[in-house]
Task: structure prediction
Amino acid sequence: MLNSTTPRDATPANTGPEVGQLQWFALRVRPRAEKVVADALRSKGYQEFLPLHRQRRRWSDRVVEVELPLFPGYVFSRFEVERRLPLLMTPGVISVVGAGRLPHPVADAEIEALQILVHSRLDLQPWPYLHLGQRVRIFRGPLTGAEGILASVKSPKRLVVSVTLLQRSVAVEVPEDCVWPESPDGVSFGTV
Result:
């Protein structure tokens, strides 16, 4: 799903974070064009990440399972900010998410946590963005190493991984005994 090459023929821009460094950015895309944009970016040689989840849909004669974007209207791509013009010219891409005209990167840790969730094949679902909550780390099971916010919505517990820039989140059910709280500086409390 990820490609390690990056085109070098884009027009450089004078603004942006960390010029010359590959970073993850969120691309705003046309509605229902996420898969087409991800394929186009991959064919151009860019690293792309389109997190999907499975959902059952009832049609008149049957029930089917479809894959839908966890973040409708967004595709993640890793590129040098000053070489973003070819991405913006990709059919279906509207803009690079940021403040005004300045793109803002998505934290590598947030993308890595999302990749762990997607590759776990557990039941994922979109979740409202949470501003408050306890940061936790999964230390056992298929999600080992994932960090997020624990939302106690009754039992079972849910781990919520958020993309701060998009103010969107993804939730997955986790056994309570696989989660350990973290301090604000990222160091786990106690020992496991």
In short: The chain is about 15% helix and 35% strand.
